[in-house]
Amino acid sequence: KLNIYERLSLITEEIGVVEKGLNVQVTKTSSYKAVSERDILDAVKPIEKKYRVYSYPSKREVIDKDVLVKESEYNGKPTKTNTLFMRIETTYRFVNIDNPNEYIETIVYGDGLDTGDKAPGKASTYADKYALMKAYKISTGDDPDKEASPEKGYSRTNKITQVQVKTLQSLIKS
Prior knowledge:
alpha+beta
């Protein structure tokens, strides 16, 4: 009988590299390659089944959310676009199916940006994908920090975050 660490080690050895198969369109002329959640799940699920490991997000907490405003010009007129930003903290659990009391957890973060209602789902998907990638040391073939992320044009509203609310509540109680 393998313990959870032995199982995760064997899974890590077997998975290897997952190539970036997703083309993300940023603008009409700019795009980049990424690894999709589906690519990661397709690589991980059969091997977790083989080594009898079940993984899932055991806890999620919103640690920051805001509405970001981006000002631009369209046909000579100024426009504003509101984009929901959400950052979540996810505790991801890896369980030995043969001994469910034996598990390990990792904490990961996910950010989601969306002009509609999809920011929470994007943040969750990102966190889950990276929990699996980091726990199993999955390489995608290059370094994501090679280029800076575009963050120009947004400004934050002056709202208090959930973390700040909890800190203030704690200070008030004491």
